Amino acid sequence: MKKRILFLCTGNSARSQLAEALMRHMAGEHYQVVSAGMKPEGVDPRVYQVLEQHGVCADNLHSISAAELHEQHFDVVITLCDRASNECALFSDSDALIHWDFKDPKSMEGIEGFEEAFEGLQARIALFLMLNGEEQSDVVGPVELFKIMSDPLRLRILMLIEDELALTVGDLTKVLEVSQPKVSRHLALLRDGGVLQDQREGLWIFYRLADQLPVWIRHTLATVRNGNPGLINKEKLKLSQIKDRKKPGFSLKTDTRVSA
Asked: Could you give the domains of the chain?
């Protein structure tokens, strides 16, 4: 069954119309998309102009009142201005209420403001679709993940494995300069928590990110790694100095990694 998504703003004349058209264009058949306004004003002609320039279909766009939809269920409601955000009570049974605050482009002359809104919405929608394009695992939730990452040692372990794809207990013990039992204890916690999995190769056991790890977690780890590039410099240098370091011979799913 298609998930239903509603974009909500004040006038349903610019931002929410752009968002509706873009979501339909980018999500294909995965969502049923609707937009509405608290006080609908009609679609601004510049919406059609910008959509046409970018090759996005503008068919069936029309301005409607949110009050007409208040008895309908939407899986996701995304508000695009502060005023609309205050009206979320109309859709209190929605599975997700999200707020993206975009400046109203109607007050600006020409289409520059509409272009800016289009580009901003395009980036937000792309991220939303990337992170919500699969069935979400309930093994690791955001609270559990950030508890795990709050420990400095576990964070460095995760950053090293995110970077190197797979490491042994011996590798981690050498570069982190902590005892093997301590490293093993943290690896076991990460494995039992569903973040890592182990894989034996001969006498060696490698730890890597779990195959079923949700995209949003992979994206979070990659963002932390790329946003703090110097975080594990010392450990990376020590890894490079380990002679004859055992590398995994099994195939690693490098295509599942996410660039931040």
From this structure: 3-131 (3.40.50.2300), 142-256 (1.10.10.10)
Q: Is there a catalytic annotation at residue 57?
A: no
b/e map 218-249, b = 16+ CB within 10 Å: bbbbbebbeeeeebbeebeeebeeeeeebebe
Examine the pLDDT at 139 and tell me if it is beyond 80: no
> Of residues 27, 78, 81, 217, which has the active-site annotation?
81
List 5, 6, 8, 9, catalytic entry: 9
Residue 81 has pLDDT above 80, yes or no: yes
Q: Measure the CA–CA gap between 72 and 96, rounded to whole angstroms.
A: 14
Query: Of these residues, 88, 97, 131, 153, which one is catalytic?
Result: 88
Residue with tokens 């400095």: 152
Which tokens in the block code for residue 29?
């058949």
